[in-house]
Predict the 3D structure of the following.
Amino acid sequence: MDVGFLVATQLSSLFPSQATSIPLQTVRQDIPLPPAHSESDAPAEHATYSSVLHTPVTGTILLRVIHGGLIVELVSLSTEIPPLRLIFPGPIIPSPAVFLWESKELHVLAIADIGSLYRVVIPVGSGRELWQHQIANVWPREYLLKNFSDLKQGLVHVHGIDCVAVGLPNGSLLRLENNYIGEESNDEWSETLFQHSSFLSSLTSFLPALSTSTSSASEIVSIATHPWPTDVGHVWTLSRDRTLRFWKAKIGCVASKSLSPGRESSPSPGTSAGGVKPHILLDSTPQTLLHIFSRHLAEEHVYVLAFIPTVSSPASGGSFHVFDTETDQLYEIGKLDASKNTAHCHLQDFMITDDSLIVLWDRQGQSFVEKTVINVEHLDDSHATVWHASSYAPEPELTPAYLEEHLLSPGSLTDKFFEAVMRPGMFSALTLRTAIDQYTDACLSLPNPRPPQLATTYATISEHIAAVVGCTVNLNRDPQTGAYQYDNYWNALKRDWEGFIARCREVERSARRPLILGVQDQGEIIIVERERVGSLVGEDLPVHLRRRLSIENAPIESQYELFAILCSLRNSLGPRAMLNLENRVLDILHQEIAFSFPDILQDQARRFQFREEMDDGSVHWIIGRLQSIDDLDAATRTALDVIGGFDVEVKREEDEVELLLPPSHSDWWRALTATYVAKSVDARYDLCLSLVTLLFFLADDLSDWDPSLLAEIFAVFRGVAMLRFVIRQPAGQVSVAPSISSDINTPDDVVSRMRNMNVSHNRTHLSPTYSIIHRLLAQSGDNHGLPGAAHRFLDATGLLQSVSPAHATKYEVLFCERLRLLSFYYATEELLSWLPRTAGASYTRARLWLNLSRADDASLLLEKLGGSFGADHSLSAEDQEALALILPATELFDSQYAFYVHVSNLFKACSLVQQEVSFAQLAISAAPVDADTSFLWHTVIKGCTDLALYDDAYAALMLTPYEKLKRDCVSHLAYRMCEDSAVERLLAFNFAGMADEVEDALAFKARNVDPRLPPIYSKILYAWFIRRGDYRSAALAMYQRAKKLQDLTHDPLSFSTLAEEQLEAYTVAINALSLVDLKNAWVLLPISADHAHEPRKRRKLSRHIPENKFTPGKFDADIIRLSDMQYDYALLSAQVDMVRREPTLLSSPEFLLSPSVIVLRLAQAHRFTLAMSTARSLKVDMTDLFSHLTGQCLRLSRNPDAVIQEDTSDWLLTDKVSSWPGTPADRGWRFLRQSLQRHDNPDTDYKYSKATLETILGVDRSSPPPPWLTHILEEHHHEYLIRLSLRFENFEQAIEYTLSLIRKSDAQLARDAPQNACATWLPYALIDQVLIAAAAQDSSTPRLSALRLELTSRVKRMQKLSRFSR
């Protein structure tokens, strides 16, 4: 019989998604709260009971009772479906069960201590979806038990979906039956209470002293039925007094038999036979002591296998009794004694599969399995039972002694402890979380100030542990010397870590306590522990040999005798010497092999003083044992075959079975495989280290050994050491998307959680923690049994196929590349340090450095690899094959050019521009003549531009032979230089043949980019044109900037700043346009949509030509002359000045005043000089201005004091005006006169003088106007004076002005002879109006007669002149 050994994995480290929870309700009232969880209790997530259901439809389902019986959890071991949790309103009584009904429903039956029987029906989806998409269809039913007074101390056994047996404390049996036919059936159960009737029990019921003892002795501790589905409805029970009872469905107890550990049955409790003291009662805790089975050949016989423990016996743990229940009686067939290895062990479960009895023992908190053959037809007590024991492979336990030994290797204390704690399989995620929570609570209870690490939230458990453990330990100074007390600090830190590890060990010890056995398809045995699930698997040869070697004086096969000698050699050296030797060997393999192995080993042996570590007797004994081996070379090669060989089994070829029983693809199975791999690798490492130890022992004789054998030994050791390193590396916590069926947060759920206050059901959930091996196995997809799957995986790694450490095989390189692709960078770097620097290893190392952001190192290494490609490479065929396997196309590049392109793309994917450009340049230099390198040139130009290497970018731009690429990249270069404030360098570049593209690019930005934001492209464009002498384009650029700023000046808050920038732009544009010939001082400005709102009119080109007549892309343009720019500047300057003078204008929506309003407001503010200059610049009519000024002069003449009190600083109080003689009125009139002389002329038709006169006459028509004013008008507008006098009814003045006009004309005729009739023309009609108006007056006008005489004289002269002209 194959012995095998146990491998297991923790459940909390596997499942990626949070369990789906369904709270169950009850109709009972006034239910007490469940008991609170105490610190002495096991962690809530540790199961107190489990059962296993395996069917072809569902695969393997594990039922777990957790949280003190409040939660039943269903876990699928065959799929990756998240677990399902059923939350009960009260603790359930052991033991619930799960069944599959008609391949479409899972039934969970459980009895809660509140007196309710629950049936929870879970629909099963198609395939193996199970409950994943059926959560909404789960329906529970509750049945209220009538007989539940002593239910809390009872024992429940669920026979099937329609039968439940309950053992009560008084020994009676309550049978519950139901006829379930589907969802439509009611869930009413029939209750039948059976008593075990006997004369003794009837008699003792009347004796109180014996009644209590008898009731306790009759308490049922184990119930069993025939495995469901079955027609056998009988129940068998075992009570504390070791009485086996047989209960029939309708009758009750029909037979009983008292059992004892001896060969004969023991007397009844309370009596003695022959003075023998009765046996001690069994423990009242529910136990698995019965198993019912039948044989296919004799199905009418139902057998009972009962176990009677012998707790205090040093010989064994108890005995198994086999009974036949034929004819409703119990016939003992035989007995099987447990092995001596089970002494003081506790039986947890046992089962029968085929002809094998499999027993699960609890041996000091660890699982221990024994197997034996059982044949009920030929059971013979005369022969001792042969038991085959199976246990877990030896693994290091983090005891203080082991930790001390662990600290001997180099490295920091914290790193050593942290690595040991986080090693895969050492502690589960639940254990670590529980331990760190306990540690944190202990730290919070300290009186000292709390470190900030205790109040921080961490993303992962590993981060939590690394930050919190040891945070209360401080480095103090010696109070006397002031020196740091490093020794005290390290001792305290070490004790802190040891305390945390002790907490982890305590929790993990509870997690590893065995519960039950289970079976999968193909008879695979499952061992379920509180927080782990394992399997009984076959041993491979290395594991077998290590187990045999660990047993003292255990026989071993002759061909493996060398391993026994090497085991003795290691034991004689001791752990410290072996650790020193191991470190030396590892250092050798991390270095390049430059000398022969005999020389290396001889040198190391002398340095190590290997033989001095052993006593002479041990040395001679080892030499004598080695001499007893006939062929040491053959024995060594056999040992190598054991260490590096695999027993790769052929996959199952039962296609029909495969269709019905699809292979498991669960994380649990992969985790078991990973655990098996770890155990096998550990065993191989120990055996190989023993073989290397032999080489040190025989260092002086190695010159006679085959060099290839020595190289192969070290190559195999390197491979095993690499595997050992990998299996000890955790893969971290994987982030997995939440399941579709997430928590149900209904009001009922909230109420249930409030009732179950000790149920930890937070949103945060333990993330799955995998090992690297587990992640690698997930890629292989091999799920066909152990040890075959583990061996196939180890064989696929190829790490044990190397024959020399001086070479790196393709498998080793590919394995490192796989780890790198999985983002295990630390592990990859460590493995690469073992390999020589071949081309394949160097490429993987370079890719790794690229992942680690060591770009410069990666670039240097990849550049060196360039010589490995092309026709002139010097790679060996093996190195070529290894390199080809890890390249993207799994083949070698045909040239350096292709490799450089590939490397450039690698750096591009990592956004490492400098290295990308460097390899693009190398690719260009190595490119074939006919290769299209435009994309490489683009990479170089764009990369140099992005790196601010503008000289290199410009050089590449000018050198590239692709014109289209030039024009595509030049704008990007220009923009980046502008954004990087490298304008001077941009202007210094010639851009031969591409200047227009640069101008267009800058112009585009100047037109479309916000002119307020840097870089200011309009200024850059202006500088570009100025540098090239194009002043007109430079002026246009700045004028366009001013116009864009004008569109943004509507915001009062930014008006001041933007107006200053706009004025600056106008000034620069005016200066630039002034450098152009005056005849050509104009620019063309495209007409914008808001052009009609300009405050002035300009001469435009025709806008009435149909659009289809335009050249495509050409539109109307406005001619902007120098004067137009000056006008715009003057207007904005006036507007800015007005805002400065009157800041309240900014509160108005129209704070940008028109030119006329500006002039008027200046006049109203008595700033006449500024108003006149502004009006002249803006070409605004000054009629109102002079009218206002005339009014001020009139006021000065009448009331000078009132005017002087006003602000007259701009006209009366200037230095020039103040120096004039006379009164203020005189100075005011003089200021008016000079202003008219300056601004009133024939171009204005002297309208300002006319307005002045009209203003004077409008105020007081009787007062004469100033003579200088009338003189001006008499000179240029005599008729106006006459009409004005008539309008104001000043007829005397009208007569005088008429006489003056006639005399003026006569005087001119006297000087110059008339050339035509027009020369003698006078406004006779106006003169007639004067005569008529004067004659119409009541009073006589003295000068009217003189006017008539003058007219008569004028007429006569004209008549005479007319006659002479004929």
